[in-house]
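**Protein fold record**
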Amino acid sequence: MVKIFLAEDEKIVREGIKNGIAWEKYGFEFAGEAPDGELAYPMILKSKPDILLTDIRMPFMDGLELAEMAKRALPDIHIMFFSGYDDFEYAKRAIKIGAADYLLKPVSSSQLLEALERMSETIMQEKSEKGYKQEFLKQQEERKQMDRDRLFDIIVSGKLGLSELLRKGQEHNLSLSAPMYNLILFQAKGAESQDQYSDENVLFDKRLKEELEGRADIIGFNRLSEGYGFLIMGEESDMERKVTYYSEILIRLAESFPEMEYFGGIGTPVCRLSEIRTSFKAASRAYACRYMLDRNQILTAEAAVRIHNDTGSISLEGIDITKLSRDIIPNFLKNGSVPEVKYFVEEYMEACGNNINSLIFRQYILMDVYLAVIGFVSQLGFEPEQVLKEFGDAKTMQPCVNSMESAVKYTREILAKAIGFRTTCSQKKYRLVLEKAVDYIAAHYQDEDISLNAVASAVNISPNHFSTIFSQEMEITFVEYLTKVRMDAARELLLKTDLRTSEIGYQVGYKDPHYFSYLFKKIHGITPKAFRSGGENEVQK
């Protein structure tokens, strides 16, 4: 119902208006009354009416001043003045304030009701438009969230200056200014493959957002297959406590899911946003240890250094190299990414301690890496001839063992190439998944409750991962694609059937016909009715 508040100093007139209209019968709610503006104002702030019906001349505070104050406090309120004074100056000021109507006394009930019904129709239309706009913006949230999460890579790249970073943060309503910064890189995944659909992963992501919502000293970024990145901001004296506090929150949240494993890496504090790349490098080194250490821990950069220092005293003499873990390289090839190769190789080589200075040990390490890569790529389904052509035989590795630098370079190159092969296979698999997803959307776009989660579940991929591959491969977000499918179907129905617009909206998944019309015009710049009348050429331009 449309709420109405009445401000009128003449009691007889006030009572006549209040009791002369069956408010509820006509879709109104009488929200209150007052004999002057001074008494009316606090009552208006409390009741928040849609329409303020006020006399202009009243004691203590007149209707014009009341209207100005009410409009400042409640910008959406509609003002209807009435007065016995046919004064042009009053009318001009009323218009300046934003009066929706101006009636001269005496006003009959039927005349007032007619004016109120016109105003009510405008109000309902405005409310609908506002609701539709909010719904439309909500639908576009996927792209906004994606752009926001990509901001993390921009921040840690070190390529932008402070002013540009702060501006980009403001675009996403993020305040990036602080005396000191640090980073936490974190990954949590269920017992199933991270790429597969998992209720635990979906619920973890939801609870994480709820946990961090409203906090000004930490910003979380979803890095999809690479986990999460958290930018922590605060004073120098308080930074260590904050890092510990948020690490404990992440651990507690992950451990609330019995089947979930987690690992984190903490960077080093820096006092400039432009230096955050240094913190990121330190965090990445610690984070890369997840391929070599037990899961379910968050490792600081300092702890990662101590681990390497502890292994530095190991000598080649007496070491049983057959007991070195053969799972580390295959595990990285399966789950790592090309940007992580650099940090992984650094961790892997340092884990060898001083032994890496030995030619024989380097030969063993590189042979182990080579065999792991060949085995991994072969399991992907590539023919042996193609594998040998791309990676060479063991003889091609030999010159690379002569120095530490050449060994590191060779290891980086061969791992990056293997991950590239994995990506090629994944893209083939993703094409099949996307074909299945497209077929699912085509069969269910009429369902009002179709969602990214529902489609991801149907193709058995985690929502985050599905959102990523869908956007990358289709070059359009899920919501944008769904809307396009619906609008294409609507356009065809508008041109080839005599169905009413409301029926067409219902058939393409929009149960609210007004929202369907709003969305159609928002996207195409023309109403469905105008499109049907020959405006399709305007849409195509």
